[in-house]
Amino acid sequence: MVTDTPLTPTPRLALDIPQLVVGEFTDRTEFERLLPGTFGSQGWLGSENDDLLFDNGSRELVGVGLHLPPVSAPPEAGLRFSTEPRAIRGGLRAEEAHDFALAQTTVLCCDPEATELACLRDLAVLETPLDARIGIAPDLALLVQAGAVVGWSLADPARYLTTGYAVADSAPPSPSTGRRLAECLALITRPLIDDVMDKEPDAWHRLRATERALREQRDDLNRSAALHRLVARLIEDYENW
């Protein structure tokens, strides 16, 4: 059930994990300490679930771990993604204390300026209007369709960019960081990551152009450094593949 108390911690978008996490924890160890006192949809080793953790006593949502999908939607798919309906600010309380499964999303949509990141169960979600957006944390909403959670969206994802479980930079992101974030999301997902692995010239041109732009960026240094480490690692991993 939806409550009037959304999570207050700031979301953290970490492409190196790659996950979006929200909660009162600063590393994986602290996150795992929550598990004995919670229930919900938990991604144990080898599972394909996202993490929604509810407190055993209050049954209130206390932690979130959402995996980034391995596939990017084709560019034309983003044109069909609507920001309606507007997000309803609210937390979640489980009606009963028992575990359940929330499957990881399979495809992501991100515009070239990274104004919004949406991760969906599948592209069929785009064919029918959403019933609701539940804003469970700052700029983070669960997407509901036909009574089921079919994905999630994060507005201004560059603002929440970090590494691991570290708190994101409090300063606003620069427009250039948003553009580089969108490029990096494409580079670490299929189909482009397959072209990188196969050493397709166009894909490597894009990879090196993004690396150079991040290396030469002179603003928003913490976020750009995080993205630069990501693409530099791609080059290192696949250059001699």
Would you mind describing this structure in some detail?
This protein is an alpha+beta fold and 241 residues long. The protein has 2 domains: 12-159, no CATH class; 170-238, no CATH class. It is built from 6 helices and 12 strands. The chain has helices at 28-34, 75-78, 175-187, 192-197, 201-216, 221-238; strands at residues 12-14, 19-23, 38-41, 51-55, 61-67, 87-89, 107-110, 116-120, 132-137, 140-145, 148-155, 161-162. The strands form 2 sheets. A 6-stranded mixed β-sheet has the order 3-4-5-2-1-12. A 6-stranded mixed β-sheet has the order 6-9-10-11-8-7. The N and C termini lie far apart (49 Å). The mean pLDDT is 93.
Question: Quick gist of this model?
Answer:
The chain has 241 residues and is an alpha+beta fold. It has helices at 28-34, 75-78, 175-187, 192-197, 201-216, 221-238, and strands spanning 12-14, 19-23, 38-41, 51-55, 61-67, 87-89, 107-110, 116-120, 132-137, 140-145, 148-155, 161-162. The protein folds into 2 domains: 12-159, no CATH class; 170-238, no CATH class.
Helix content: 25-40%
Tell me the radius of gyration: 18 Å
The secondary-structure class comes to: alpha+beta
**Segments where pLDDT lies below 50 for 5+ residues?**
none
Strand residue content: 15-25%
Distance between the termini: 49 Å
Largest sheet, in brief, is: 6 strands, mixed
| Spatial strand sequence of the major β-sheet | 3-4-5-2-1-12
